[in-house]
Every structure is written in structure tokens, then in C-alpha cells.
Amino acid sequence: MVFGPISDGGHEQVSYFSDPETGLQAIVAIHDTTLGPSLGGTRILDYETEDAALEDVLRLSKAMTYKAAAADLPLGGGKAVILGNPDDLKGDALFEAYGRAVDCLAGRYITSVDVNSGVEDMDVVARETDHVVGTSDGLGNPSPITAHGVFHGIRACVESVYGTASVTDREVVIQGLGKVGQSLAEKLLEHGASVTVSDVDESAVEAFAREHGVDTVAPDAVYDQSCDVFAPCAIGGVINDDTIPRLDCDIVAGGANNVLAERRHADVLREQGVLYAPDYVINGGGLITVAKEYLGGTREEASEEAAAIGDRLLEMIERADDRDTTVLEAADAYARERIDAAETVTPARPT
Ligand code: NAD
User: Among 146, 198, 207, which residue's Cα sits nearest to residue 172?
Assistant: First the structure.
């Protein structure tokens, strides 16, 4: 069963790399390069089985195809996993070997940071290949730009539900006060929203509440808090069969990845009259930033492109209404149409 899982998901290429000297075992999955070279981070995890690693990299690379297409980027979807315990593996020799592996794909795959890999690791990878972003020479921390895109996505949702994009006096509950959540909260406050924050890290919540004079809610009570917008900015799977009946909001729109426990929860939210902004569309600002780094451009340009997430999301919401379907379905269709409309593979990096 070599080709089964690959062709079933529509993947173009899966490459396995092994370097006994450094212990490197990596899988790079290239899902689709119709719109341009594939881009996606490198996840380092001690998977229980090799099959679990393959399954993860196939799923993640396919998701990147949709994310790039929905962000109007000239990029395809790819992802890599390095198998093993990050604490045991990490070292310059391993990342150099990994850089050589990425390089031999000749730009069909561009790597970056992900779970357990960071900027300093990408700096080592960059010694061996040009096909890496998220290095210390790059455009810097993408999180504020991600938050900027989420802010504009929230405005689009607010416009659709209440008839005006203004967030002034709108009640927004933010789950997770990390890099994205804090930046989003500050932006919303600047624009007059009424913000309530929540985090498992009590000291972070207290410090933020003291500085900005906002209300707080305990992590386990966050789903019961009445509000206009619930903005998940922490972990995945928070919209599920247990939490949906508790929600007292009109909109779910936040920066976190994999917000829905299962795809069908988008339908359940819709049936309950809650507008759900697909996570991979609204949090595309991070990808837009690293794409700009690879293609050449500035943080300001990345920020402008992230702001355009608002208009794109509004278009998807309107299409979902017209077709009597979820915004998630409309977003997937938008991405697929872009790929189907592309006639040839276009090299993304200017020559
Ligand atoms: P982060 O680690 O800086 O912040 C996450 C915060 O969530 C932390 O403060 C943590 O204490 C808190 N948290 C964890 N579990 C929680 C819970 N159950 N309830 C409340 N708070 C909880 O991460 P980040 O970079 O801000 O990213 C947040 C989310 O956005 C993640 O899902 C990430 O994958 C996604 N995302 C981030 C970016 C980016 O540019 N940083 C881009 C796209 C998507």
C-alpha cells in the first residue's frame, strides 16, 4: 500500500528522507503545486507509528493547499514532519541534513516553522537551502499580521450579521491571550469594542486586564459567556458537541487552527444560527507573511494583504447564503475554483 493514501488525497509527491548519521527521519508531502510551489512548516513530533506520521503530513499538506488558495496566494500546499522526540533530535547537524533534503526538492517545497521547530532551526536549514522562510533574516513575527487579518475577518462577519462593519460596542470574547489573542484584543479595543478575555494562564489574564481595564472570564466558563463574537485564539477542537449548545453568540471567528472538532460542526453552528468564519481563511495572515518573505516584499504589504481577508470572507459568506450552505463549504469551493482555473503551474518566485 504505497500509493493508496497518497493518490486518495490527491497528493502529487511524498518524499522520505533518512540520514543515519544525524538520526534524521523526515517525510515531505507535496499536495498540489498548480498555483505555485508548495509551502508549509516542519512539524517535529514523536509519532506513535510511522503510519501516524504519514497520515498527519498528508492531512496537513492538503490543508495548506486550501489555505494558500483561499488567501489568493501563488502557492501550493506542502508540509513536512520530522519523526522523533524534539529534545533528543535537535542539533545543527540534523537541521543541516534536513536543509539538504529540502534543497533536493529544488523549490517544489518551501519549509518554515511549525510545532516544535523555530526561527533558530530555520536559520540552520537556510545554510543548505534557499527554500526556507521564517528565518531571523525574514519579515519577523507573523502573529500581529495574523491578528490584523482576524480583525478584518471579524469586521466582515459583523457586517454580514448586523449590517455594519463597525465593531464599536460589539461584545467580543477572546479565548487565549497569546501572541495572536493579545494583538487582536488590542486592535478591537482601539476600535471601541467591548472585550472580555480568558486564558488558562491566570497571570497573563490579570496583567492584560489591569493594563487595559477589560473584563475576564474563567477558561471553563468561556463558552457560556453571552457575546456577539466568540474568538477562539488558543487551541483546536473547542467547537464540539459539548460546547456548541452552550454558546451564546452570533459569530465564531478567531485565530486558532482546527477550531472545529469535526467538519460537521460547521453545519451544526449554521443550524443554530451562528456564523462561523472558517479558521483557515480568517487566520491566513501568518501564511501571507511568510509567502511575502519568500516572494519578496515588506511587512506593510503583508499587512495590507491580510486586511483583504475581510473582503474575501464577506464574498464567501455571500456565496454561502446564495447557495444555502456553510461558509466552510463556500471557502473550500472558492479555493478549488482558483486551482481549477489555473491552466499551468506558475513559478511563484520572481526570476
Ligand atoms: P500562543 O502559544 O502564543 O498563545 C496561545 C495562548 O492560549 C496561550 O496564552 C495559552 O496559555 C492559551 N491557552 C491554551 N489553552 C487554553 C485554553 N484551554 N483556554 C484558554 N487559553 C488557553 O499561540 P499563538 O501564536 O497566539 O496562536 C494561537 C492560535 O492561533 C493557535 O491555534 C495557532 O495555531 C493559531 N495561529 C497562529 C498564527 C500566528 O501567526 N501565530 C497563525 C495562524 C494560526
Answer: 198
Question: What per-residue confidence (pLDDT) applies to 5?
Answer: 81
What is the helix, strand, coil percentage profile of the chain, to 5? 45, 15, 40
Ligand 1 pocket, residue 175 CB under 6 Å: yes
Ligand 1: atom nearest CA of 238 is 18
149-165, pLDDT tens digit by residue? Answer: 999 999 999 999 999 99
Return the CATH class of domain 143-284+311-335. Answer: alpha beta
Q: Per residue in 167-224, pLDDT tens? A: 999 999 999 999 999 999 999 999 999 999 999 999 999 999 999 999 999 999 999 9
What is the topology classification, in CATH, of domain 3-63+76-125? Rossmann fold (3.40.50)
Cell of 151: 480583525
Q: Tell me how far apart the alpha carbons of residues 274 and 68 are, in angstroms, rounded to a whole number.
A: 26
Is 0.85 topped by the overall pTM? yes
Q: Is residue 235 within 6 Å of ligand 1 at its C-beta?
A: yes
Question: Which pLDDT belongs to residue 137?
Answer: 93
The reply to whether 3-63+76-125 and 143-284+311-335 are identical in fold is yes
Query: Does the Cβ of 289 fall within 6 Å of ligand 1?
Result: no
Percent of the chain residues past pLDDT 70, beyond the cut? 97
The tens digit of pLDDT for each residue in 83-140 reads 999 999 879 999 999 999 999 999 999 999 999 999 999 999 999 999 999 999 999 9
Domain boundaries, the chain: 3-63+76-125, 143-284+311-335
Q: Is the CB of 182 under 6 A from ligand 1?
A: no
Half-sphere exposure of 78 (CA within 13 A, CB side): 31
Nearest to 280 by CA among 311, 254, 244: 254
Ligand 1 pocket, mutate which of 60, 184, 186, 200 (most atoms under 8 A from CB): 200
Name the residue type at position 161.
V
